[in-house]
Design goal:
CATH topology: HIT family, subunit A
Bound molecules: guanosine-5'-monophosphate, zinc ion
CATH class: Alpha Beta
Radius of gyration: 14 Å
CATH architecture: 2-Layer Sandwich
Helix content: 10-25%
Number of helices: 3
Order of helices and strands: HEEEHEHE
Largest sheet: 5 strands, antiparallel
Shape: globular
Strand order of the largest sheet: 1-2-3-5-4
Strand content: 15-25%
CATH superfamily: HIT-like
Structural class: alpha+beta
Number of domains: 1
Number of strands: 5
């Protein structure tokens, strides 16, 4: 997707602080962090949101989550705890239309979310 900012991060045409990458996903720090650790994990392929996923993508979703676990270790928040968030659509608070998993940690997370 030529107009997708996260696709540009995948192709390195816009910069980001990369945290992790493998054959299916890449992860980079959020430009506007909401916690001491705030990293985004995205599929390399353009998927607009979790609503677009199909049965064949179940492995991709699992890999996003497992990458999130790896990031929790890399960032030193595996033991203190962390939160995964996937915002979907307008009411879900999604602002970038390329599926992304937020990995948040380094402070206590409130519940319910805003
Ligand atoms: P959403 O609101 O869609 O769930 O999350 C989008 C996230 O992407 C936001 O937390 C926002 O700060 C982050 N973001 C938006 N543009 C950029 C960018 O160009 N670089 C990085 N690293 N993060 C971005
Ligand atoms: Zn994209």
């Amino acid at each position: 997707m030529s107009d997708c900012i996260f696709c540009h991060i995948v192709t390195r045409t816009i910069p980001a602080t990369l945290v992790y990458e493998d054959d299916l996903v890449i992860a980079f720090d959020d430009i506007n962090p909401q916690a001491p650790t705030h990293t985004l994990v995205i599929p390399r392929k353009h998927v607009t949101s979790i609503a677009e996923l199909e049965d064949l993508d179940v492995g991709l979703l699992g890999r996003l989550m497992l990458a999130g676990n790896k990031i929790s270790k890399l960032k030193g928040i595996a033991d203190s705890g962390y939160r995964f968030v996937i915002n979907t659509g307008a009411n879900g608070g999604q602002t970038v239309s390329h599926l992304h998993l937020h990995v948040l940690g380094g402070r206590h997370m409130a519940w319910p979310p805003g």
